[in-house]
Amino acid sequence: MARPAAAGYIARPVHPFFVSLGGTLLMAAFFTDYMYASNALMQWANFSAWLITGGLVLALVATIILLVELALRRTGPIRWLDFALLAVAALLSIANVFIHTRDAWTSVVPSGITLSAITAILLLIAGLRGWRVTADPVITRGDY
């Protein structure tokens, strides 16, 4: 009697966990940028800089894990739309963290908060698509 492929063990990729953590930090930076723009308390701009830095560090960790998973064939092929969404968000965040090194008001308004808003929208779309960059692995008959 043949066993269905769904009964076999399928290793879940680990990279979506780190992508979601980093994406959450980068989306939170938009909120802290908005708070700084509304009340000009410098601590909100400091929060934004740290949130963006933390999000980029987690994006780097997710990238390393993704490369390891691809090398070990624990994941399926890359979904290029999701990859492009996250890559553009990461590149905009790198530019944004440099903008946040400016002094006072110009560190956030207008270019910093604009980049944070665009990044948050891109990451919201990526989050709704499951934070995954790859498809499920293809299970062949001898793999389980």
Automatic annotation (TrEMBL):
Domain DUF2231, which positions? Answer: 12-135
| Entry keyword set | Membrane, Transmembrane, Transmembrane helix
Highest rank taxon of the organism = Bacteria
Is Transmembrane helix a UniProt keyword of this protein? yes
Taxonomic classification, please? Bacteria, Pseudomonadati, Pseudomonadota, Alphaproteobacteria, Sphingomonadales
**Family matches, as InterPro entries:** DUF2231_TM
Membrane spanning stretches: 17-37, 49-68, 80-99, 105-126
What is the protein's name according to its record? DUF2231 domain-containing protein
What is the originating organism of this protein?
Sphingomonas morindae
